Amino acid sequence: MSYISTLDSRLQKLRSIILDYGQMIIALSGGVDSVFLLAFAAKVFEESYGPGSDRIAALTASGPHFAPDEVEYAVHLCSMLGISHKTVSAEDVLELIEDNPQDRCYTCKKSIFSQLKERADMVGSVLADGTNLDDMDDYRPGYRALQELGVSSPLKDAGLTKSEIRCALKQLAADDPVLESALILQDGTPVWQKPAFACLASRIPYGEKITADKLDAIYRAEVFMRSLGFSQVRVRHHGDVARIEVLPEDRHKLYDDALMDRVNEEIRACGFSYAALDLGGYRMGNLNR
């Protein structure tokens, strides 16, 4: 892929890719990347074919390893923007990945995206996901499944990075009051400032069994930590121990006796016996290391 020097030129390339599709279904997780792809594609099709274009739709997988608030936001966003949207149950995937092998993401993506691709093929649409250029720097066995299924990744193909996607989403919102309103989360955070997220199963080390109870404990613990103002947080599940990762620059906020007591109490209430702070702080793909 040739190097694209500026954000504007990358967005022009993305526009061309989308128009070449003709019509598309977006695998909408509720995260920044797929939200941007949805908003940008909706604008492209509206500008090219007029308001009310039915050339775009969205599908969202729902299951125990996906954060409920992300699924809820995906539903809300499509409702606000008038985009056709359906949730697809992925409850049965947990049984396929419960032994948590290193290629867990491959098995999960292959199962879920097979369902999504089948739906897209039935209506003659291109199925696209939010994979971007930066995702290629981490261990991503799930991307192999997308390639095998013929799922398109237009953000990656246009050469867009995570930071550029956030910038472009903010620009889109500034030009459209309706979109700007739809891009505000329940806690008041704009989506373009929303921390990176990943499926809840990624908090459990490879080889350790994945269960619905573990996933629920992780989710509740992370919701609590975010309520304290830690925007980027991971709660890694190590048996009885919850290993808490916050941004390196936020670690000092936990060096308070009263706050540590509160965190310990709440983490135990989520089902853990012990709460521990990762002294290294949050890093993307920490368990892959």
Description:
By secondary structure, this protein is α/β, with parallel strands linked by helices. 46% of the residues lie in helices and 12% in strands. The chain has eleven helices and seven strands. It has helices at 7-21, 32-49, 68-81, 93-97, 104-122, 141-149, 154-157, 162-174, 177-182, 212-227, 257-269, and strands spanning 24-27, 56-62, 84-89, 126-128, 233-238, 241-246, 274-277. Strands 3-2-1-4 form a four-stranded parallel β-sheet, sandwiched between helices. It has a three-stranded mixed β-sheet with strand order 5-6-7, covered by helices on one side. Helix 2 (32-49) links the parallel strand 1 and strand 2. Helix 5 (104-122) packs parallel to helix 6 (141-149). The protein is globular. The mean pLDDT is 94.
Short précis:
The chain has 289 residues and is α/β, with parallel strands linked by helices. 46% of the residues lie in helices and 12% in strands.
